[in-house]
Every structure is written in C-alpha cells, then in structure tokens.
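seq:
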Amino acid sequence: MSDRPELMRDEALRTAFFRHVCQTSPEPLGLVVARAAGATVWDAHGRAYLDLLSGIGVANVGHCHPDVVRAVQEQAARYLHVMVYGEAIQAPQVELARQLAALTPGDLDVVFFTNSGAEAVEGALKTARKFTGRRGFIAFNGSFHGDTFGALSVGGNPVYRRPFEPLLSDVRFLSFDDVNAVAQIDNSTAAVIVEPIQGEGGVRVPHDEFLPALRRRCTEVGALLIFDEVITGFGRSGRVFACEHWAVTPDILVVAKALGGGMPLGAFIGRRALMETLSHDPPLAHVTTFGGHPVSCAAGLAALNVLVREQLAARAAQLGEQWRAHLSQHLGERLRDVRGKGLLIGLEFVDADATQRFARACFARGLIVNWTLHRDTVIRLAPPLVITDEESQSALARLSESLGSLTP
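struct:
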C-alpha cells in the first residue's frame, strides 16, 4: 500500500504525457524520469538505468555534473536573459567563445551561439551563401543535420524530406565515403556539409582518404566545407573534435548537444573574415534572441573545463577500444558488425527485428539504448564519457547478456 500514491502519480504523468505532449514516435520509451547523475537515470520507482545514449550525445560529462550544476545556479542568481545575442557583453558567452577558439583547429576563432544544432546548421548555410555569393549545396546520402527547413533540405534521407517539400533548391546529394564523387563539387557550390562520422546514418566511419579529398576539392573550387560535429564533438570520438582524426580543418564547424553540458546550446564557428559577413550588407544579417543564453553558456563553460581537465577525449578513445573488442566477440548470425571511434559505437544487426529485440532486452536489464534514425538495423552506443570502470564493466556484461538472448 505504501507505493500506491507513487503509482498514482506515475499513471497521472503517463496519461498527461500522451494527452498533452506531442508524440514523435508510435512507441516512445515511456521512462518516467525522477533524477539523473553521472551515467545513471532513475525512474519514478527508484529503478536505476545506465544511460548508454547520453541523452543522444548531450551528457558527455554525465548527467548533473556538480561543476555544471554549480555554474547554472550561480549564473541564474546573477542574471538570466538581458539582451538579444551579440549586443550586450556577457562574461559566460565571451569566456566560452574564447576557450572554444583555443580548442578548435586552425583559425576557427569566431563563434556564433545558437539554441540548438539545427539552428547552428541554418546559420552555417546562410553564412556560406552570403560569403560565397553562390546558391548550391552538396550533402550526403544517409546524413542528418536537423529538422528545420534548411537543415532538412540537406538531410540525406528522402523519407523524411518528402512530406515537407518543396525545401531548399540547389541541393545535390553524393555518396558518403566515395572519393570519386567529390569531383561533382564545382564552382556553383556554396558549401559542402558533412558529418565526419555519420550518426543517424548508422555510425558510418569514412575511410582515411575521404575527408582529406573533400577538403582538397572544396579548396580547388572555392566552396566552403562545413563539418557537422553536433554528435561527434567534445571528446565523443576519442578526440576533442572528430576532424582531428583526419587532420582536416573545415571552414565552418557546427557544434551543439554536449556543448551545453545538459543545457540547450549550439554554435557555428569560423574564421573572422567569413563570420563577419553577417554584420553588414545588411547589418544584423543573422540574429537570435536566446542563442548563447548566459545560463547555457555558463553550463557549457563548466562542461568544457571538465572535458579538458579530466582528459575525457583520451578516456573515450581508451574505453571505445575496449568496448569494440568486447562486443566484437559476439559477431555472428545476428550481430553483423561493430564499428565506431571512441565512445560512439554502432552495432549492426541482421534486420530490424533483431535490433528491436536487442533494445528491449537491454531495457529489461536496465540499459538505455536505441537504434539510429536512418538505420533501423543499427544500435548506437554513446555512454557518458565519465562512466566509471565499474559501470563500464557492468554495461558490457549486460550488453553481452542481451546479445546472448537473441540466439534462436
């Protein structure tokens, strides 16, 4: 009888969720969240789940990291929103931009803060057209860059584009990881947008020749190269930014998700000559009200300091090798491939049924996993980079049990 009020609250929340919160899938996870910390999420009944998705790549430094929580509390006590982005000088924005400039490759040292990854993609596309005076965009089959109109226009899955057409014109799609295809980039191309590792496309890691070839071709024809590191940024791939694996510097770097340490925050980052095009002809060529919110920037700054201080990129590289080696032992009739970089790992199953059965088996064992948006045969694993050694071993044991349950 003692848990009856709790059960009633749980049921009321579920009813209100399905009645008033817009559903985006026919079968949502349905986990009633009570609290979260580190790599763990607890439901309303106190059951603990290891989050092997990090809130889809957000919680790289873990849920509710004490440094991030403290920064949010302290900034919220100072001031919240005081002026639209780019007008007032706000210390959290300035310091976060300065530290990002120090970490990004090459001369990418001017930051435009946004609310999300999709909004950052929109800003990057607008900047590319304005700077080059060209109209065309090149994107890649299987890519995902967000769901606003511009971002959707360069998304590489026609199933998601078709219901919303017409979208942006002058967008062409090439085969990802095809060096020969880069010859189709020409002097009508304003920009090429690419994920260095495709996330929603199934954790697809390109061969070493592809991204350097893309960089060379863009330079040859005067097209900008935009890297979408919304998923791969901030240590996820085993480097602070995934582009470092191939020693390729884009013209614009798009980041979000883990940038805010759990708060909503995105950005696109470029060299000064490129970014200042947004300040003239006309002035205020691209603006945002809440982008770079001081509380989000304070959280992002704290998370970035944790990432650097605790060397989480190196930890992701080390744990990623362990996870891929362990999981590869289960390759067989059901599990066809284990791939990735760092703690961004894709498990490719023989079919969608096996994928869904595996996800359900994991959830029953207290693991949060899911398949990727564009590949229903691929489970993406992306645990918080602060996952402890004990939690890591527990997760691998439960993943192995779940894989074993698929045996006919």
